[in-house]
Each structure stands twice: as structure tokens, then as C-alpha cells.
Design goal:
The chain is α/β, with parallel strands linked by helices. The chain has helices at about 175-190, 210-215, 250-260, 265-270, 275-285, 290-310, 345-350, 355-375, 380-390, 405-415, 420-425; strands at about 10-20, 25-30, 35-40, 45-50, 55, 70-80, 80-90, 95-100, 110-115, 150-155, 195-200, 220-225, 240-245, 320-325, 335-340, 395-400, 435-440.
Length: about 450
């Protein structure tokens, strides 16, 4: 409150509200910056926000207060030029607040997060980093060995305060990708031996690092982030699959898309981030050996998904691209980012909002994920047990040749003989070309026993 005299009067023009599984976010749109402080009162429960040099002209009658701890929002002038906003509550909450400067989509904002419980950072404030910087995933009991499902974490990009890319007719990326994620979850859950977990179950904001923490909480075997981004040219089209890059991006498009996605935290706002968490993340990313194995798996499953998607929609690039996407920086979970199309392209935007195309994209991703894990099941899973017993039925498979592939490498990857691979594709020699689609015969271990 010491420098409020330096600030011009700000007006609260709009109030927005989102409910997440563990918190409620309230956003006040202001015409300018404003200093604030807050405190709680009990009997009855209230949260008081004092904003210096501000006025309130927003309507709050349309706020969806159901399923939130809020029962009302009221305001009144205080001490002449200041404003007091009171949030009436049905129960005790743990509030956090912070201000955000203008960006491409919003002006000045005051964000108030009402947590159902005290938000916890990855490490206590006074804790030292553990001897092993790799984040720990929940352990499974011995009884689950050989019986557990393969868990796929589905991350619908953006949400809440962050709409993502906006296409023609005001189509918002956050709604399109959540619909695709829900379709994909239904398909994965119906597949024996597999289970899907939605990282974002509704329209609310989740910071990028929190997304990978949610995947780890569910002991995910794969993290799939789903997007439908925009580009500088509306003519850009086609689906893409990305994996993490520690160096430069594989294309200018990849770099621009990664930069756009990594700004999500700036748009949605991340308040009260612990430096301990940043230290832990930095330590995790420096685990080169772990990241090498994880990245290899990410590229492998990414190519399988990309090839499957290419059967139902045009591709932007025929190989998995790499860039420094923050959401892919999990050192222990293979992670891919799927761009289902460019929502900035009028033709693709028109398809992306239809359920039939959303289902087609989900089926393609499901097919690629299933094919990868049938070939590379994690130890201790039901699918691994079926494969080791020769009981895993294997349908037709295809492989799109990428730069650096050789026929012998492909045969080894799919556990088939070089001769059977030549025969299945009518090849007289081992020469193959980038972009060529090869039929992969069933391996001897993958024939179902009747």
C-alpha cells in the first residue's frame, strides 16, 4: 500500500470464474494496475480484498457459483478512493492472489485462487534436494505386478484463463482439444490392459509443470499433450507430433509453436511458484542418461502415432519434430505433443469442431499408442504378460520410413526377420526411401494361441 498514490485509478470491468478439482479461480479484469491486499474473516467465512484507487463496474450476477465455495461477491467504496471486495464463502479456503500485466489476450488482471486445501510445492520450503533428483512416482504393490494396466496421461492443452489459439468464428483451442481428449480416453479405457487419465477434466487453468506432476501422480507410462495451434499464416495446415529437444528446434514452425505453448503460464498466470520446485526441475532435466532413454521412447511412440494420424488427415511433417516444449520435460515419462491441426486454417478449423473428426483423430492416436505398447509393453503390465506368453493378438502394422532408418533397424524394432520384412513388401534388396510406408508382418511372439 506504500506506492498506491503513484497508480492511476483502475476500474474493474469484468469478473470471470473457473472451478478446478482442487481450487476455484476468480479473475478481475482491470483498466490499469492496482495494488491490493487480502485477509480472511470467520463466522461467517469471508475473503476481503482491498484494492487501492479502484472502482467496481462489473456485473457478477452471471457467475456460475455452483460447486464452488463462493456464495456471493459484493463490493463497496472504502476510505474515499479505495475499493473493498468481499467474497462470501460457504467454507474455509486457502487463498492466494497475484497481479498479471497485459498480454496478447488480456489487459491488467488480479487473480485470486481459492484452494480447498493448502497448496503444496514439490519440496518443503526448508527442504534440501534429495540425493536422487528424479521425481518419485507412486510405488505399486507386488500384487499388481503382471496385472496392472498401462496408464496413458492425456493432457488437453490450455484451459480456463488461457483459451489457447483462437480460430475463425472464435473457435477456442481449449474446447476442441478437451473434446478430443475425452474421446480418446473413452477408447483407451475400452481397450483391455490400458487405462487413460485426463490431466485436465474441465475448463480450468493448470500450469505447465503441474501437468507433468499430475501424470506422475497417476504413475503414467506415457504423457500425451493434445493441441490445435495457430500459425502466422492461415494457409499452414496439417497435423504434427513433437518430442522434446535439448538443442535447437527441428524447424522454424517447431520453434514458433514451442514458444507459443511455453507462454501458457504467462497467459494463465502462475502465482506462488516455489523456487525449490524450479531447482528440482532443473536437476531433473540434467539427468542425461534418464532423459536419453525417455526421449528415445518418446520419438518411437511419436512416430507410431504420427503414422496413424497420417492415414486420416494431412500431415505438416512426415517425421516427429523436436522443440523445447516445457510440458514435455519429464525425465522419467515418455512424452509427446500432438498438434491435431492448425485452428488458424479455416478448413482445418471447420473440421476440428466436428465430433466425427474429433473421433477420427482420437481413433488414430489410440491406434498408434496401442501399436507402440503392444511392441514395447512396460514390465509388470498385463500386456507384457500376454506378450511373453505369446497370447497377444497383433493386427496389421505399418512403418513410415524416417531419415536414418535402415531395413535391418526396422526389422529389429518390430522383432521380425529381415527376410519376412522384404517378402511382405516385395523388396528385392534392402534399399528404402524416406516417407515410404512398409507393411510389418506379425512377429512369432505376437501370434495369438488358440
Amino acid at each position: 500500500m506504500l506506492f498506491c498514490g503513484l497508480l492511476q485509478a483502475a476500474e474493474i470491468k469484468n469478473v470471470r470464474l473457473w472451478r478446478a478439482p482442487d481450487n476455484t479461480r476468480l479473475v478481475f479484469d482491470l483498466t490499469g494496475p492496482a495494488d491490493h491486499k487480502l485477509f480472511t474473516l470467520s463466522n461467517p467465512e469471508r475473503l476481503v480484498i482491498d484494492i487501492s484507487g479502484a472502482s467496481f463496474s462489473a456485473s457478477t450476477s452471471g457467475l456460475a457459483l455452483q460447486d464452488t465455495p463462493l456464495t456471493g461477491v459484493r463490493s463497496a467504496p472504502r476510505d474515499g478512493s479505495d475499493l473493498r471486495v468481499v467474497l462470501d464463502l460457504s467454507r474455509e479456503v486457502k487463498p492466494k492472489s497475484f497481479s498479471l500485466p497485459p498480454n496478447q489476450q488480456y489487459g491488467h488482471r488480479l487473480v485470486v485462487d481459492l484452494y480447498d486445501h493448502e497448496p503444496q510445492s514439490s519440496l518443503p520450503a526448508t527442504a534440501e534436494p534429495s540425493a536422487s533428483p528424479l521425481p518419485q512416482r507412486p510405488t505399486r504393490s507386488v500384487a499388481e505386478a503382471g496385472q496392472r494396466d498401462i496408464v496413458i496421461a492425456l493432457d488437453a492443452g490450455h484451459g480456463g484463463e488461457d483459451p489457447g489459439a483462437i480460430g475463425p468464428n472464435k473457435t477456442q483451442e481449449k474446447h476442441v482439444v478437451l473434446a478430443i481428449a475425452r474421446e480418446l480416453k473413452t477408447m483407451i479405457d475400452a481397450e483391455p490392459g490400458f487405462k487413460a487419465e485426463l490431466v485436465r477434466t474441465g475448463d480450468y487453468f493448470i500450469p505447465l509443470r503441474k501437468r507433468t506432476e499430475i501424470a506422475r501422480k497417476h504413475s503414467a507410462d506415457l504423457f500425451v499433450s493434445i493441441h490445435a495451434d495457430a500459425f502466422t499464416r492461415p494457409s499452414a495446415f496439417g497435423a504434427s507430433v513433437f518430442a522434446l529437444s535439448h538443442g535447437g528446434a527441428t524447424s522454424e514452425t517447431a520453434r514458433l509453436l514451442a514458444d507459443r505453448e511455453n507462454r501458457s503460464d504467462l497467459i494463465g498466470g502462475v502465482g506462488g511458484v516455489s523456487l525449490d520446485n524450479k531447482d528440482q526441475v532443473l536437476a531433473s532435466v540434467l539427468l542425461d542418461l534418464s532423459m536419453t532413454a525417455t526421449l528415445s521412447a518418446s520419438l518411437d511412440v511419436g512416430q507410431q502415432v504420427l503414422s496413424s494420424i497420417g492415414r486420416i488427415t494431412p500431415l505438416h511433417k512426415r517425421r516427429v519434430e523436436q522443440a523445447g516444449f516445457m510440458v514435455l520435460k519429464s525425465p522419467d515419462i515418455p512424452s509427446i505433443l500432438v498438434e491435431t491441426g492448425f485452428i488458424s486454417n479455416p478448413g482445418e478449423a471447420q473440421k476440428l469442431v466436428t465430433r466425427s473428426h474429433q473421433q477420427a483423430l482420437a481413433r488414430a492416436m489410440h491406434s498408434g499408442i496401442k501399436a507402440y505398447f503392444h511392441r514395447n509393453p512396460p514390465p509388470g503390465t498385463r500386456i507384457a504378460a500376454l506378450k511373453s506368453n505369446g497370447q497377444l493378438a497383433q493386427g496389421p502394422r505399418e512403418h513410415t520410413v524416417s531419415r536414418g532408418d535402415t531395413l535391418s533397424m526396422i526389422a529389429t524394432r518390430y522383432e521380425v526377420s529381415l527376410a519376412s520384412l522384404r517378402q511382405a513388401n516385395g523388396l528385392r534388396n534392402d534399399q528404402i526411401r524416406v516417407g515410404q510406408v512398409l507393411k510389418v508382418p506379425a512377429g512369432s511372439m505376437l501370434v495369438k494361441n488358440d
